[in-house]
Specification:
There is one protein chain. The chain folds into 2 domains: 138 residues, Fructose-1,6-Bisphosphatase, Chain A, domain 1; 113 residues, D-Maltodextrin-Binding Protein, domain 2. An 8-stranded mixed beta sheet has the order 4-3-5-6-7-8-9-10, with helices on both faces. By secondary structure, it is α+β, with helices and mostly antiparallel strands.
């Protein structure tokens, strides 16, 4: 399937408008909203559902040729050849507790390749956007991954075998932080140069948690080291994304890490 650049841009703008249009309502509930638990034990609020159904309705009305897949409604509507993948509130637990690690996230995948991304950190009114081949932006200003000295680098280790990986980073005196449970926030920090790596290895993140942030970080200069195949694809759940020098550290320990995550 082929989508024009104009259609990609226009649908991205519709996503942005829906996300930003919810900011006031989200902030009124920030830290005080009630929630339920889904079957997997993760929290969900009425605003998760409302944001997703609103953006779904708008995209289907304006771009019926593009399919839709949301975290809360789960089923794919329309074609998978061109698909908006939406996480209405990433970091719902942070939203419930009034912590700034929550975002609205979405990515457009066309023929298996991510073409557009939106991550809106509504608590701080920071809008992160990317179009494939056009760079990554925060509130309209281009951002870049920061390729610092390894001893000054920080990695968010969103991985179950966290302790098994620590020794990979320790010889380089790199800072290794436990995961925040909010993928969108982690990817935006990587893309703007605040941290230098995010590991996604045997963790609970799913496709909608990763696709927007991976494109954003790649467009900012990050490199992906995949652990399920030779090349990263948008359905992959086991990978590390990092600044070039941290990515090289991962490649140097590839076999060791691969063994650790398969035990």
């Amino acid at each position: 399937m082929s989508l024009s650049r104009e259609t990609i841009r226009a649908s991205q703008q519709s996503v942005i408008e829906v996300f930003k249009g919810f900011r006031e309502e989200l902030m009124q509930s920030y830290g005080v909203i009630q929630h339920l638990s889904k079957d997997d034990g993760s929290p969900v609020t009425k605003l998760d559902i409302k944001v997703e159904t609103t953006i779904k309705a708008r995209l289907q009305a304006e771009f019926p040729e593009i399919g839709f897949h949301g975290e809360e409604t789960d089923d794919i509507v329309g074609t998978e050849d061109a698909l908006w993948i939406v996480d209405p509130i990433d970091g719902t637990s942070s939203f419930i507790h009034g912590l700034p690690y929550c975002t609205n996230m979405a990515a457009l995948v066309v023929n298996g390749v991510a073409e557009a991304a939106v991550i809106y950190q509504f608590a701080t009114d920071e809008l992160f956007t990317a179009l494939r081949g056009e760079g990554a932006y925060r509130n309209g200003t281009q951002i870049h991954v920061k390729n610092t000295d390894l001893s000054d680098s920080i990695v968010f280790a969103s991985s179950f075998p966290y302790k098994n990986l620590y020794h990979v980073f320790e010889p380089h005196k790199m800072g290794v932080y436990a995961p925040l449970g909010a993928s969108g926030y982690e990817y935006t920090r990587l893309a703007q140069g605040s941290i230098q790596g995010v590991t996604k290895l045997r963790c609970k993140s799913m496709m909608h948690d990763n696709v927007p942030g991976v494109l954003l970080a790649q467009e900012a200069g990050a490199e992906v080291v995949p652990f399920e195949d030779e090349l990263y694809n948008y359905r992959m759940l086991n990978f590390v994304i990092a600044s070039p020098n941290v990515a090289q550290v991962i490649r140097n320990s590839y076999d060791e890490i691969k063994t650790a995550i398969t035990v």
